[in-house]
Amino acid sequence: MKSYTDIYEEYHKNVYLYAEKEYSWYKQADNLKDAIRKAFLSEDEQGKVHPHQRRVGRQRLALAADIALKHLDTQCVIDFDNFNSIYQFVQDVRNKVEGFGELANYDVALRITKYLGFELQEVYLHAGVTIGFRALGLNVKERDIIPVEEFPEPFKQLSGDHLENLLCIYKEVLADSSVEFPKTCICPKTNSSCINKNGRVC
C-alpha cells in the first residue's frame, strides 16, 4: 500500500518532468497569436495531435484555431491575466465548434496559460480527476473547482495542473493509499468564492 508521499514522489519521478517538457513546447511560441494557434491545434514538436484531442480531430481543431484568432482581434488582451479568463475565452470558441469538448477546453486554456507564465492555483474537477479527488476521501460539495491550498500534504505543493494530472493518473492507487495525514472533507472558506464550469464566479 502506497502512502501519499510515495505517490507524490512517484509522480515527480515519472510524470512531472515529462509534463513540463510538453509545456515547454507551447511556451516557445513567437507571440500570443502563435501561442493560441499552437494551443488549439494541440500538436507536439513532431506534429502529432495530443492523445486527449485525437477524437476532436485535426479539422475541428484547425477550425477552432481560426475562430480563436478572429475572436482575439475583438478581445482585450489585458483580460488574459489568469487561467479563468483564458478558460472563458476558449469556451467562447468551444461553443462554436461541435465536438470540441470540456477536456479540450481545459487543455487548450492550460497551454495558453503556460505560455503567459501563470501557475494554476486551482484544480478543475472532471472525469477521472473527480474520481481521484473522491479517492482521497474528500467531498466535492457541488463544487467544480478546488483551490490547491485545500488539498492535504504533500499534494498541495503541486500547481493545479500537476495536481489534476496526479489525481487522474493515480485515481485507483489513491483509493488504496495510506494516509500520513487525517482525511478531512474539503469545505469552502467563509469568504471564498466558488467558480463553476462555465468559468464564472458565483
Largest sheet: 2 strands, antiparallel
Mean pLDDT: 84
Number of strands: 2
Q: Note the gap between the termini.
A: 39 Å
* Series of H and E elements: HHHHHEHEHH
Output the structural class: mainly alpha
How many structurally independent domains?
2
How would you concisely characterize the structure shown here?
The protein is mostly helical. The protein has helices at 4-27, 32-41, 58-72, 83-94, 102-116, 127-135, 160-169, 171-175, and strands at 122-124, 145-147.
Q: What can you tell me about this protein's structure?
A:
The protein folds into two domains: 1-14 and 123-202, no CATH class; 31-116, no CATH class. It has helices spanning 4-27, 32-41, 58-72, 83-94, 102-116, 127-135, 160-169, 171-175; strands spanning 122-124, 145-147. It is globular. A two-stranded antiparallel ribbon has the order 1-2. Residues 181-202 have low confidence and may be disordered. The protein has 202 residues and is an all-alpha fold.
List the main descriptive attributes of the protein structure presented here:
202 residues; mainly alpha; 2 domains; two-stranded antiparallel ribbon; 8 helices; 2 strands; globular; disordered C terminus
Give the arrangement of secondary structure elements.
Blueprint: H1 4-27, H2 32-41, H3 58-72, H4 83-94, H5 102-116, E1 122-124, H6 127-135, E2 145-147, H7 160-169, H8 171-175
Antiparallel strand pairs: 1-2
Helix pairs in contact: 1-5, 2-3, 2-5, 3-4, 4-5, 6-7
